[in-house]
Amino acid sequence: MVAGVTLKEFEEQKKPSGFFPKLFENVCNEGGDKLIPLIEELREDPVGLFKFCYTLPEYKNALNIKEFYPEKNIHESKIKKEYGTKAYQDKKDIDAIYLYTQALALESGYPKELEYKLYERKAKCLMMYKQMKDSEEAYKTALASLDHAKLDADKKTKIQKDLQRAIFFFQKSNYVFNKKDVDMYPRPALPKLDCNSKYPAMSKAVEFRYESGRGRYAIAKQDIRVGQYICVEKSIVSHMLPDYMGSNCTNCFRIMKNPLPCPDCTKVMFCSMRCRKEALSSYHRYECKVVDFLIASGMSIVCFMAYRTISQKPLDFFLKNKELFSNHDEISGSKDGTNQKKYLSDDYRNLYNLVTHHSERKTGDMFHRSMLAVMLLKCLKSQGYFGGNKVDFSSIPEDILTEDEQYIGTLLVHFLEVYQFNAHEIAQFEMVAKDKEEGAKSVFIGAGVYPTLAMFNHSCDPSVAERQERLKAQYWFDCRCIPCTENWPLMHEMNGDSLIFRCEECGEGVPFETSANVPRIKCSCGTPIPILLALKKIAETEDISERAHRKLLILDNLNQHKLFIVHILQL
């Protein structure tokens, strides 16, 4: 996690305020002592416990699922448009793009006769930032919107010719985006791996094993170089923190330069038409009208991910693949596991089989997660996930739980348990300014599950007692990694009184006291290390670091990156 913070600690620091914690407390108080034996009886029956929570009168009568979301607002839209025009006139094009996009996001009944102006100005701003294809599309939309403009014939004709001239410029110019086979929204190329035959997301330098009391863990089959990529994996499910829904693409998490709003809600934005189509054709149609309700509940990112796990797949997928979820095998995927097939990152079987520590859970924890799952299931049901029209629970005198709903609800409970221990943060690197590396930090913007990466055990490089205590609270295990067993020091506990030189023969670290007056020291393998030569190499690495910093100051990012890599490798 960011700055050594676990997912659980981040959620606790955030201190979410919402209606669900209070609702859960009220249900427990109303049920009183009579609830405890009833829940205890269902401890080993997840299906029964879910059904019990679904029909619990104290909960059923209090939980009111609503399409609670900010609707389009003509007044707010006009205000954003006016601010955008002011920014455009002041040549603040980035601000203008952002404000015009907000105006379009809020638009509902925005005067059709004025719509062309928004798109024309947006097109001009985009052209200034070399976003040619987006600019061309905005000009085309402006031309189409001109049909609704209430202008006299001469003025409309003049504007029409201006827009057509701009579109003609794009069509006839010899720029690369006119080529049919060009990807309009290319994504960064991923590093290449010498892939493991069983774990395609992993380098063949690594394999996974299982050990009782330790679980699945990764081991190196061969030497791994500093800076070598060992895993390149796409998350099987991910979700953005609500705070970043307006600045980052909901689908791919990238920071947006030219955001596209959802056609219906005002909460989410997309970086491209491709991302918007992907979202609208899968998960967002079941999230659009309830995302603000879910945020208002105060639920954690883990709950959002559990909901997304279901919403991104059609109901038929789960009904046709029940065998994937029939047996929870916590050693599958390891060398000693029963599943010797390829371990694929997009396989829901591998997602389902990640560790849950279900047998170690307290009954109250199971009850709490089942209650959350009921709320999530009702949201899915309200949005028509189970077929037919959307469901208004206030108009249903008797809400019957169907077999399919019960099945999905039980899966939600399971995934809520899985994600507690297997979710990884998704972060973005933020700098104070383009020419400053000081103060730069990694910022937590969301979470995802990477089925291969999740089988790695945690390493406590910087600490022992404190870090172990935190990992025990979050992941429920006692760490036995080398830094823990050898009691490695913390960074702030280290001083400049001693140096550690790396032996070029065996790679081991050799300590040297700076107060010692000796020309050389000897490694345990017998190799002598000349002190003056070693100090000279340290000075050379510091010089490389300084050169890299100078490249950063002139925004030569490619060369500064190369120099920093050399600096790290030499260390």
TrEMBL record:
Gene Ontology process terms (BP): methylation
Alphabetical list of Gene3D superfamilies matching this protein: Tetratricopeptide repeat domain (1.25.40.10)
Domain MYND-type as annotated: residue spans: 249-288
Superkingdom in the source lineage: Eukaryota
MF-aspect GO terms: histone deacetylase binding; methyltransferase activity; zinc ion binding
UniProt xrefs under Pfam families: zf-MYND
Keywords, sorted A to Z: Metal-binding, Methyltransferase, S-adenosyl-L-methionine, Transferase, Zinc, Zinc-finger
Cellular component per GO, a single term: cytoplasm
UniProt name for this protein: (salmon louse) hypothetical protein
